[in-house]
Every structure is written in C-alpha cells, then in structure tokens.
Design goal:
It is a single chain. This protein has 361 residues and is α/β, with parallel strands linked by helices. The chain folds into 2 domains: 231 residues, Rossmann fold; 107 residues. Helix content is 43%, strand content 17%. The protein has a 5-stranded parallel sheet, with helices on both faces. Strands 1-4-5 form a 3-stranded antiparallel sheet. It has a two-stranded antiparallel sheet with strand order 7-8. α11 packs across α12. The longest helix has 27 residues. The protein starts with a helix and ends in a 14-residue tail after the last helix.
Length: 361
C-alpha cells in the first residue's frame, strides 16, 4: 500500500489560528467577558462612577454649581478656572455625578499626548506557524496582531460618559487639538486607525468639564483660541469664610471654634502680598483641611501646635531656608493676631487684649 506524503509529514501548527473573522473575535471577547462576570454595567459601577467624599453645599457652592449645570444643559462644555486649592475638582466631580452618567477622568500634565487622550495599540499578540516538509527543515511564519485600547476621551465619546479633564491647561496645546472636532463637529478622529474605525461619532449624552489654574500660574499653557471659543469659562475664587469652615468640619472631627480659627489664620495669610516668595500660590481651602487633619492627629489644639502644623503645611512651596523662616515668622504673627481678635470679640472691647495665655485656646 502506497502512503501519501501528507500522511508521513503532517503539518504542525503552533499558536492560534492566524486568520480570525472580526465578528467571531468580537463574539469570543463577549463570551469571555461573560465567563469572567464582566459586563459594561459592572465595569461602569466599579470604575467610572465618581465618588463624592464629604462634599459641602452652601449658597456659595450652589451658585457656581447651578451656573455650570446651566451651560451643560445648554449643550456647552464648561471650563472652571480658579486658584489652586479652591475646590474646582471637587465641584467638577459633584456636577458630573448629578448628570446621571458614568464619569471618566483625565489629569493633564506637560508629558500628555494625544494618545493618552484617545488610546492606542498597547499590545501585540504573536502567532507562529511551523511546517515540516523535510527532515530537519522547517518553514516558519509569524504574524503580529495589534490590540487597541480606548483611553478616557474615546470611552466618553463612544458611550456618552461625562469627561472631567482636570488641570486641562497643564497639557501642551498640540495634544488637545483632537478635542476641536469633538466639540464642533461631534466626531472623534483616531489618527492611527484606518477605514471606518478611524472615526467615532460622539454620543449624544457626552459632556465635558475642564478645570484649570489661571494663566499666570507656573507650568500652565494658554490653550488655543479655537478651543477656548468652544468652551464656556467660569471663574471661581476661594469660597467665603462660612463655606470654608463647613468644608473643614466635613473632612475632620475638630471643634467648630478650632475650625473657625484655622480658617481665619489661612485667610489672613492669603491676604498678605508676599507669602513665601515670588510665584508661590496663596494657601487655599485644601491647606485648611490639611492643617485641621494634622491637628486632629496631634490631638492638641494649643497655639504652639497650631503654629507648628501651619508651618509644616504652608511652607511646603518656599524656595529655601530664608523664605521658610520669613513665612514661619508671618505665621506666628497671624496666629498671635487671631488670639487677640478672638479675645476682643469675646469681651466686646479692647480690654485684656493680649492677656490670653499662649497655650490656652
């Protein structure tokens, strides 16, 4: 009996099938997701819904919140601009939670590129095919399959999520050019893709909220005018005294009178012309929270403790030892002045001013 060549020299295949129908692959991925218990709803609930922690709503907060919601309802993306530590990000996430859609997050910086916004090919799968026709002779063929991964902007555009782009103006303008067609024509272009997959039609539920520091801050770029023309800018400053006190108390368990005093100290330092040297940002509400949390751990609220904790928090941005000593001296003056103001307020007159013991508050 004569044997065929194919029976004695069987083809050996290593790796998966090279050619796979696109629809079959999509079904395979969906089935694999089901086996792992993954679906879009569970992913959204686990990773995309913003979590609000101790958010405080006062009349001042609600005023800005309503302005942001007004423009979003009108169909415009909103750009919240304000000093460091004034609560821009917390407000943006709070507004996003009210829109009833999952939220994706981008944090801008100088190194960000368009790929960081839209996604790219992050993994290559290698498949090998070996054919043995003659003893010790092999024919090998390899193929590489690229796997595309969506980044936040693409996810938001595809599925109608809310995009919160924090520190928007810290990204170089060229990286943000991709936003122009998203906000104007409702089309996201994926430059490294081909054919129909190159363009994503923006979902009607897509919304965007941007936050930035003012242009004069270090490390901030001026976005291109063409992009700014498509955004509604809302400038916010530090909140009023009562709102800052409420925010501090929401994040800590310190007594109200201590919270009020800390806020007075920080607001007094904020009003000084020079705090720690040229280009140093004024201390914001975040600084109030940090000081209060430090005192809570210290578990002592005497004046020396307040001075020390304030110095640790507020001198983190100074340029050197000389600026540190200068700011530390200003902190001591402001803390001492807050003692005198509290004494006068309690007595209703100037009598006894300065007589309160330094460790008695």
């Amino acid at each position: 009996m004569r044997m065929r060549y194919e029976d004695t020299h069987k083809r050996i295949v290593r790796g998966g099938q090279i050619h796979t129908d696109l629809e079959d692959k999509r079904r395979e991925i969906a089935e694999r997701g089901k086996k792992l218990g993954l679906d879009i709803k569970s992913i959204e609930a686990e990773y995309l819904v913003p979590e609000e922690i101790n958010f405080v709503e006062t009349p001042a907060v609600r005023d800005i919140e309503e302005r942001v919601l007004l423009w979003i309802d009108a169909g415009y993306p909103v750009h919240i601009i304000g000093p460091t530590g004034c609560g821009k990000t917390a407000l943006a996430m709070h507004v996003a939670s009210k829109l009833g859609r999952p939220t994706v997050w981008i944090n801008g910086d100088e190194q960000m590129t368009t790929t960081d916004l839209i996604g790219g090919y992050s993994r290559f799968e290698r498949q090998t095919l070996s054919d043995r026709f003659v003893h010790n002779v092999y024919k090998t063929a390899e193929t590489m399959e690229a796997t595309w991964v969506d980044n936040p902007l693409t996810l938001a555009c595809k599925y109608g999520y809310t995009l919160v782009y924090n520190e928007f103006s810290r990204t170089k303008p060229a990286a943000n050019n991709v936003l122009l067609s998203v906000l104007e024509e409702g089309i996201l272009e994926l430059p490294t893709k081909f054919g129909e997959e190159r363009y994503v039609r923006v979902h009607p539920d897509f919304n965007a909220i941007f936050t930035s520091n003012p242009i004069e801050y270090a490390g901030v770029y001026r976005p291109q005018d063409a992009l700014l023309d498509r955004l509604v800018g809302i400038y916010m400053d530090f909140y009023d005294f009562e709102t800052e006190v409420e925010i501090v108390m929401a994040h800590t368990n310190i007594p109200r009178k201590i919270a009020e005093r800390l806020v007075k100290v920080v607001r007094s330092l904020r009003e000084l012309e020079d705090v720690g040297g040229d280009g140093i940002a004024k201390p914001g509400t975040r600084a109030c929270i940090m000081i209060a949390q430090g005192l809570e751990v210290l578990n002592r609220y005497e004046n020396e403790g307040i001075k020390r904790i304030c110095a640790d928090v507020l001198t983190s941005k100074v340029r050197g030892p000389a600026d540190y000593e200068r700011l530390k001296s200003k902190i001591e003056e402001v803390v001492a002045a807050s003692i005198r103001r509290t004494k006068v307020s309690a007595s209703g007159s100037d009598e006894g001013e300065g007589e309160m013991p330094d460790d008695n508050y």
